[in-house]
User: Fold this.
Amino acid sequence: MYGSYYNFFDPTFLLVIAGLVISGLASAYVNSTFRKYDEFRSSKGVTGTSAAEYILRSQGITDVGVQQISGNLTDNYNSGNKMLSLSEATAQSTSVAAIGVAAHECGHAVQDAKNYIPLRLRAAIVPVANIGSTLSFPLIMIGVFMSWNQTLINIGILAFSLALIFQLVTLPVEFDASRRALAILREGGLLQEDELVAARKVLVAAALTYVAAALSTFLQLLRLVLLFGGNRNRD
Ligand SMILES: [Zn+2]
Assistant:
């Protein structure tokens, strides 16, 4: 019966494929949405970098640096070294897409400055989730080869579920950063109404990639439960 796991036609493998398809579609969608609204020049004409620096100042944040990094949509905020990194396409572009993404990262800096609980929670979960997802598969395999030690297998499955918890905690952090970004852009007059609508579309597309990642991890967890959860007859 262990053979079923190695069987290429293992039907639960469809769950993994579904997860990959969902993630792939979300990633393609955010890329095409960003490209589309990267053609939409903002009337203010500021770059992503200038917008970020302006927003941070306007929020009274003086201890965060802004730098440019390589890569596609690699924009991020690191609360550890207080560094807001913008990819080339965001940093140098004056499009509503670039300003929207830059403002979103500023949203994370604001969360950090205001001790937004989900952000702290996420930071605390990161190391645990990393260890969990690294150990989960070896634990399950060892459990299987130890004459199907269900306790060890269950610990392995629980370890994997930490990765899902991390991704679920990420969702409010991401949605909140975008909400803050759009509010700041409106208040600060960095974008006009029609530009805000476009920036929101880019940020919604970006948020969908996090939803897709969580869904994909859930499907992998479901697969582990279907394959290894519960006691089994080993005949
Ligand atoms: Zn974010």
